Amino acid sequence: MILEVIAYTLGDAKVAHAAGADRIEIITAPAEGGLTPSRGLVEEIREHSSIDMRIMVRPHSRHFCYDADDVQTIVRDAKLFNGLGIDGFVFGALTPERRVDEELLNRFIEAAGGLPITFHRAFDEVLDQEEALMTLSRFPQVTHVLTSGAKPSAAEAVDTLRQLQHLATHAGHLRIIAGAGLTVDILADFIQRSGVSEVHMGSGVRVNNHILQPLDASSISEARGWVHRSR
Question: Mean pLDDT, 10 residues at a time, over the chain (231 residues)?
Fold first, then answer.
């Protein structure tokens, strides 16, 4: 079991590491669902922490269907970050038909220089999640899929997540990360019922359960306790 926590400041990263998070997802613009962070932030976090850090590459929050200008930015950001000692990327792109954009994913993989990739919650907007999972399973560089099971909260999609976990296990290298709406008080029951091996927490481990508040070390420690007891 792995506990991943959203971080969008150096302070967040320090708190997450000290409180026992296994991994952080580094973003900016949390109220928009997360966008590409600055190089300066990534460098600062790497200098001050050895925690596993995955970098969001998402140029804007309008949608997940990217035009040629967006692609240039995406590829450039991936090349920029892969030389900074990071541990992986968080990325997702869809076609207008709401399927995985395989052409752009291939370009991103090349720009990422072999680093592992989490396909993010663009996955929750695909036409068919099982089909999308099988598509992603053909890309060995895509190691994780972050999803709420296409519901506002992962807690509302236990059966879907259990099925996706089953399919991912049979696909071989893919792991499902359940995220969105998870709080410490429901975590143990959620892990048991969904069968997922990794959880992603944002507002659920922050002061007042609000995404724009600081991380709460005690909540992370408690979440870590439930996650690690499930190993």
Answer: 96 96 97 96 95 97 96 97 94 97 97 96 95 95 96 95 92 92 93 93 95 95 86 61
Structural domains of the chain, ranges and CATH numbers in brackets = 2-229 (3.20.20.380)
Side chain identity at 9, as an amino acid letter?
Answer: T
What's the pLDDT score for residue 83?
87
Q: Which amino acid is at 115?
A: L
CA 213 – CA 222 distance, rounded (Å): 18
